[in-house]
Amino acid sequence: VHIYSVLAPAVALVIVSTRQGTAEGSGFVVARAGGSSYLITNNHVVSGATTAEVLLPDGRHYTAPVQGTDPQEDIAVLKVPDGNLPLAEFGDSTKLKPGQPVAAIGSPEGASGFGSVTVGVISAVHRTLSNVGGGRSQTGENLPDVIQTDAAINPGNSGGPLADADGLVIGINTAGDTAANSIGFAIPSLVAKRIADDLIAGRKPGHPYVGVSYQDIASYLAGHASSSIQGYGIVVSCAVPGGPAEKAGIKSNDVVEKIDRTSLHNGETLGGVLQLHKPGDTVPFVVVRGSSQTTINVTLGDRPANPASC
User: Fold this and answer.
1) Could you report the per-residue pLDDT of 207-265, keeping only the tens digit for each?
2) Which of 31, 40, 79, 154 is deepest in the core (most CB within 10 A)?
3) Can you give the pLDDT at residue 286?
């Protein structure tokens, strides 16, 4: 009840019409400036549209232009012509723990399901989402770092908030796994906020990129039982020629233990740590090579739409 009362006024139904038909999703207001309010939703909800209809719980409704989109992180922002809409508040997604209670708010059945709430827990953090259907558009999502929850995320929930017990937004509902039960995914709040801030300001968001293929240490050891490799974290299979990692001196069989002072164990992943940075940031990698540990500073690139393999 507390979560709903805190967040519901800021949550909206988003209706989009394109040549392919009508799509519905959810969104929530995150900022106000210059007589307008800015609402965040999923890119796949508004894909192919220049405007959307936004319907609020109190009955107010607006035609809102699409302020900006970021297909790589599946984030979009709508500019609503009313500078007094209620705001949702972001929480810190880096502090999430499996088992933590959460609630997903949205409109899974359009207007008839307005303000629907489902509850559950965080099942896992730092999951990679590959080609999982997201919303009624059935768009396949490929995201490097998402939250997994057992709170039901159904078509129409896409773009709505995943909230903690204090009513803070810790993720954006983006997809449910149609091949399984009680598996939904959300984009971490700090990733979404970084992208939304850029879109609201009219900037093109950047996407941090290192350019490595790798395995986590458990997967590596399962295939190399007699390996003498040392350290914990991830094992670099190869560095993309000319990529940021290769330029900095990262090599095959290096074991990356820490990135920016964050240890890559207990669920922390390369993608999860990097998503908090921007292209151009120089980030220290603590690397074990053979029996020696060293720190290599890597200047992050901007992730291409189709990254090269190695």
Assistant:
1) 999 999 998 888 888 888 767 888 899 999 999 999 999 999 999 999 999 998 889 88
2) 40
3) 97
State which H helix or E strand residue 101 sits in: strand 101-106
What is the DSSP track for 14-42? EEEEETTEEEEEEEEEEEEETTEEEEEE-
Distance CA 144, CA 71 (A): 13
Catalytic residue among 37, 93, 158, 189: 158
Catalytic residue among 70, 74, 198, 254: 74
Q: In one letter, which amino acid is 38?
A: Y
Q: Is 216 marked active-site?
A: no
Catalytic member of 26, 36, 37, 44: 44
Q: Is 158 labeled as catalytic in the residue annotation? A: yes
CA distance 249 to 286: 12
Q: Check: CB of residue 80 under 8 Å from CB of residue 36.
A: yes
DSSP codes of every residue in 135-201: TTTTEEEEEEEEEEE-S---TT-TTPEEE-TTS-EEEEEEEE-TTSSS-EEEEEHHHHHHHHHHHHT
Tens digit of each residue's pLDDT (9 = 90 or more) over 49-62? 999 999 998 899 99
- In order of 37, 46, 64, 67, 68, the CA distances from 81 in angstroms are 7, 17, 7, 12, 15
- Identity of the residue numbered 58: D
Would you call 211 helix, strand, or coil by DSSP?
coil
Known catalytic membership, residue 26:
no
Pull the structure tokens for residue 300: 């992050």
What is the rounded distance in angstroms from the CA atom of residue 308 to the CA atom of residue 211?
Answer: 8
